[in-house]
Amino acid sequence: MSYQEEYNQSSNDPIAFWRKQADDIQWIKKPNIILSKNSENNYQWFEDGQLNTSYLALDYHIEQGNGDTIALIYDSPVTNSKQKFTYNELKHEVAKFACVLKNKNIEKGDRVLIYMPMIPQAAIAMLACARIGAIHSVVFGGFSAHELAIRIDDAQPKVIVSASCGVEIKKVIPYKPMIDKAIELSQYKPSSCIIYQRELIEASLVTDRDYCWASLTENSPEVEPVAVNATDPLYILYTSGTTGKPKGVVRDNGSHAVAMKYSMKAIYDIEPGEVFWAASDVGWVVGHSYIVYAPLIAGCTTILFEGKPVFTPDAGTFWRVCEEYNVKALFSAPTAFRAICKEDPNADLIQKYDLSNLKRLYLAGERLDPATYQWLKDKTNLPVIDHWWQTETGWAIASIPYGIEAKKTKAGSAGLATPGYDIKVVDGSGNELAKGEEGNIAIKLPLPPGCLSTIWQNAERFKDGYLNTFPGYYVTGDGGYIDEDDYLFIMGRTDDIINVAGHRMSTGEIEEVISNHPAIAECAVIGGHCSIKGQVPSALVVMKNNVNLTNEELISELKQSIREQIGPIASLREVHIVQRLPKTRSGKILRKTIRQIVDGEEYQIPSTIDDPIVLEELQLLLGAA
Ligand code: COA
Ligand code: AMP
């Protein structure tokens, strides 16, 4: 079937289309009701179905006689270790840890927070939650104790699962002090913490609250998967909104499993037994979907890589992994490849490895700039596929669905609408724009299976943030256009969210932290251009009078408070101390103009500006910097 035929089927009769895809997974109770509305009047998929996601990812393959197939490969250049788990072995570990969780009073619907480095125990903990119907909430290791505390208060997990440390390029980061601090800061107190002790650091445990992973699992019996409703949540994953409070994206079991299975074939063209590698982190949505769930549900081999694209030990590490494990498709962020290109511009390291099994490269998380696209295409001779998605959708909204038809790619474009997604470009009033015209990108409801069902404990925020702006549509927060050939071009966010090394951050949240410093009168944070990370946060701050700090002291304190309150991944690149911020006559800060000046781009003086002299002052200051 051609891409167009498949797409038409998905849009002409979504119910028949998704019923067919749902037939491709093994249900405990097959759904009869494919699409309906819930009590909040939101669409839901497979309402009366029952299943277990851990069963689909593990037991099912064993029942099919594939227990000895490698399910997960752990490759850790930062600790010099490697480990392989067959489906039998992974199931054994998951079923034991599921029992450990049950013994810590975790029941169906209870939350478990997972704050882990990239070690197999992170995936084991996630699948163990799924096995007993608990809801996991994984928090990326680069977030601070303060951010962790916000998530603890929102998700209210009975148990936290963590490890004694994470390992970065040149340093070991103790995790346990962060957990202790977060629990001290949070209002809600989890009853237990289960800590995986790594050789590099042994964490000290609090009596009657903290337990050692190894001793709990050593003689643990295994538990069988329980039946959950398709609409029961599988996980909550927090992502940045435009305010300081992150949004808990909720994903349910049934529609997620169907979308994951469909996408592995349709988008990535991966068959059971083949090796798929998403070089991301389990703390992000890419890690949830394409390190853990989709490859395992599809019966493939997945790779959990604890390292960076460069310096672990060099910029050839991605290619080494691809050769060593016969990776068929590699998925990472443009940032990773920009970092590789910087270290190895002539691609000498690519030549060192036999990449004959590698068929395609997939990129997402931020815009794939044409220069990186071209470099990768030239140096690898492989199809380089940009695809666009969000934490909220859980899988690609636009892509080149290679498993359906190998359509051509276009530099700068994130591809065509993935079957299931009806993408429209609309103006500020919700009117559909013509091809080639840039506007807000919206998706006509219903969203396909796999997308968020709500925001955790905040149905109003779900409606206000996504559904109320253009009735009948989900608003993505991204802007762009669709060209004459139906290819989508994502041009950037239409809100105050920036993208740092493929990680989504809210400038509003960073501004909140800066404004809390006693010396600051007001501030504006923008995402300045960075040749490796795409964007990095930079701040303009106005000091209060009579502040007893030198500029250097203030800047250092502000940078430190961002690291402490949000985490090292948000670290500020530059802080500019200014007398005034450029504003409109109605007092709105001119962030776009500030960003253009910081990036040295040409800009137009907005007609609404209050005082044009402020822009001249800023230009002078940054020119002199
Ligand atoms: N736990 C603890 N700290 C972490 C962390 C984690 N899981 N991940 C990052 N950090 C810390 C880093 O140690 C660093 O701290 P420092 O400022 O004290 O040195 C800081 O956060 C910034 O890290 P990072 O953004 O990784 O920058 P880097 O300069 O160390 O590395 C790249 C640059 C390009 C190699 C790296 O950003 C990268 O691999 N990017 C690709 C990201 C990606 O795959 N995103 C995909 C999501 S789909
Ligand atoms: P996250 O939820 O962290 O995955 O971030 C999602 C956001 O990242 C999107 O809303 C986009 O702004 C951006 N993004 C992700 N993939 C792409 C892509 N392929 N092209 C352009 N922007 C992207």
Describe what this molecule looks like in 3D:
By secondary structure, the protein is an alpha/beta fold. It has 2 domains: 400 residues, ANL, N-terminal domain (Rossmann fold, 3-Layer(aba) Sandwich); 124 residues, 2-Layer Sandwich (GMP Synthetase, Chain A, domain 3), CATH 3.30.300. It is 32% helix and 24% strand. It is built from 19 helices and 32 strands. The strands form 10 sheets. A 7-stranded mixed sheet has the order 5-4-17-16-18-19-20, sandwiched between helices. Strands 7-6-8-11-12 form a 5-stranded parallel sheet. Strand 26 and strand 27 form a beta hairpin. It starts with a helix and ends with a helix. The model has no long low-confidence stretch (mean pLDDT 95). Bound molecules: coenzyme A (COA) and adenosine monophosphate. The site of adenosine monophosphate has 19 residues, from strand 26 and strand 27.
